[in-house]
Design goal:
Length: 172
């Protein structure tokens, strides 16, 4: 009986930190040895995911093309940047590729797409804190209040994409 109670407690505790649609995820700061902003190396704080509808790509570099079809379609929507923001958090711990190579590519991406926020996650912080899928391409959409409206891990289907666009447009 004690084992069952301990197991149930552990499962409940694990679920408390997982991202849940309809809720504001626990605050996460990625800084120092864990990573940070590509632009200047400063800390990234998840509490900044408010005042706009944000689409976050949390991606293993080896899966960077998994949702390129969604990314392209999203760009074509040309949402008003005063109400919409985009964020790419790169899970550097999920790849065998050397960080310095990926970081160089990310700096180029940041220059090419200055409206998108790029963040390096060197130690799978969001995997550990929010329980998003590791070694995968994850799409998360947040409301202007910071609550999670949509979460998809893996390749977006046409149905997933339509649901994501509707979610964004309903909340702009």
């Amino acid at each position: 009986m004690k084992i069952k109670i301990a197991l149930l407690s552990a499962l409940i505790t694990l679920n408390l930190s997982a991202v849940t649609v309809g809720e504001v995820p626990s605050q996460v700061i990625i800084q120092n040895d864990d990573g940070g902003m590509v632009l200047d190396g400063s800390a990234w704080n998840s509490s900044t995911l408010q005042d706009k509808v944000y689409v976050m790509f949390y991606v293993d570099p080896d899966k960077k093309d998994t949702n390129s079809h969604f990314s392209k379609a999203l760009k074509e929507k040309k949402y008003d940047r005063s109400n919409y923001g985009s964020l790419a958090v790169i899970n550097l711990a999920a790849t065998w590729k050397p960080n310095f190579i990926i970081e160089s590519i990310l700096k180029d991406k940041q220059e090419e797409f200055p409206d998108t926020i790029y963040v390096k996650d060197k130690n799978s912080v969001l995997v550990n804190e929010w329980k998003v899928e590791d070694d995968e391409s994850n799409i998360l959409i947040f409301s202007k209040r910071g609550d999670l409206l949509f979460y998809k891990s893996g390749k977006m289907s046409e149905e997933d994409m339509q649901k994501a666009f509707k979610t964004i447009e309903d909340n702009l």
